Amino acid sequence: MSSLPISSSAAGPSTENGKEPESRYEPRYIDVGINLTDMTYQGIYHGRKAHDADLESVISRGKAIGCKKLMVTGSDYKHSLQAIELAEKYPGTIFATVGVHPCCASDVTKHITPTKSLQSLLNQVEELAIQGKSRGTVTAFGEIGLDYDRFFLSDKESQLLVFEEQLRIAERVDLPLFLHSRAAEEDFNKLLFGANLPRKGLVHSFTGTLEEMKILVEHGYDIGINGCSLKTEENLAVVKEVPLERLQIETDGPWCEIRNSHASAKYLKTMPEYLADGVPKDVKKEKWQSGLRVKGRNEPCAIAGVAWVIAQVKGVEFEEVCERSWENSMTMFRFDEAAALQQKWNGSPEESA
Predict the structure, then answer these.
(1) Where are the beta strands (DSSP E) in the chain?
(2) CATH H superfamily, domain 29-345
(3) pLDDT tens sequence across 273-287
């Protein structure tokens, strides 16, 4: 994994011409796609304990580099519930999505019986979303969509059934969507554009073609960019064309880090050290110590690198990428309104942005 530059007494240049500005821009980020319910943040990998849980440190490191808000992904009922619990624990900072990921679709459809319809099986997901919305803990409905690269996890028919039914739920819960699309453009667009969705949404971790991106943007959807969106030169060419007014940024940790083999790595190497000020080195999980990052496990503090690469690829100021993506995320997911509701329900002071 390409590590963020580690802070030192000699900070690197903050502009492309290498000149130090009179006053540095202090970036602010929103990680709109982070899987903090994943067991690796509890120190567990493939069912085996490798180190102590370090979720609190992961969240703290993100906040230290300016990642002020995190939207934790719900991939099924269980993980959606866990995401909400994190939102309740970190009001004003963490928010949740609720939904069933396409790779989990068959886990739902296998329970369909003559007396149990798909709609009834998804009722608890809908109720969780509605309740979470009212309390400010849930700001999006998802992760929903289609993934035709992973039929070994969930078959095509199950994915189509669950996606279509969840789009009906989305019409009722009135939340923006957090969407997943892999190698399924025709079916994905047909179902998505055929639904009556008042709040549109974000197609996250986008790795599609330029034409796919343009069609989604034309239909009012935002594009989520992370390390997986920056792997190849073809990916970078697409990112260059994503309109800033439709751009949002994410890490999708613990996956989708920027790796040394990625086309984006050359840009990451030019990132000023001060943008990663306070981020510790990463080590193999077997050598983990409290306060250190884990090699190969992505986390919110890496969002600085995503924003930096996007700025270099698009040829715009780093500040513009940060501020535009911040405003886009705040507008779509209404984090301020949600934080106010969290404060009301929790009776605790809202954390400042």
Answers:
(1) 29-34, 44-45, 48-49, 67-72, 94-98, 138-147, 177-182, 201-203, 222-225, 247-249, 282-283, 293-294
(2) Metal-dependent hydrolases (3.20.20.140)
(3) 999 888 999 999 999
